[in-house]
Amino acid sequence: MNFEAAIFLMLTSTFHAIAEWRGHLWEYLGRLTGARIAANAGPVAGPVFYVLSALVVQVTAIYWAFWGREMPSEVWLQIIIGLRAGDAIFTHISPANKLSPNPGLNTAAIFLCEAGAIAFFTGLPNPLWILVGATPFAVLQPLLKWTENNQKSWE
User: Fold this and answer.
1) What are phi and psi of 8, to 5 degrees?
2) What is the pLDDT of residues 54-87, one digit of tens each?
3) How many CB atoms lie within 10 A of CB 18?
């Protein structure tokens, strides 16, 4: 059962990343936040920084959850809950994300369902580990806005 669950989570992570890559997520984030650093990231830096980095974090958490020392690791599963929910909510579903098209929005719903299923099957999750997983996605847009607002002082 664990092997199938891990493969399923890795596949949905990959499908989500492909949707974000094809939809130029970095350009979307640039338009959304006004951050030129994201909007002008280009066809190599954009996918690597904004899409591939999130995919690597998700797949690494899945690996440690299912093939780490304690299988499945409840801590890593809770981090996955945070990663899934954080990506879906802060990058795609939040009312602040009103621009269209929103790359990855379709698979964000799957991420929320997965987060709910993991929470349900592992019992009451620890909010601390969920927060650890969600934090990168929660801070991305404010960080991009801050970068744009302070970029002039760096020039």
Assistant:
1) -60, -45
2) 999 999 999 999 988 776 688 899 999 999 999 9
3) 15
d(CA 54, CA 95): 21
Any idea where the domains of the chain sit in the sequence? 2-148
Regions in the chain scoring below 50 on pLDDT: 1
- Tell me if 49 sits within 8 A of 26, measured CB to CB: yes
Tokens of 103: 């790359």
Rounded CA Rg of the chain: 16
- Alpha helices for the chain (secondary structure H): 2-22, 25-33, 36-39, 42-46, 53-67, 74-86, 105-122, 127-154
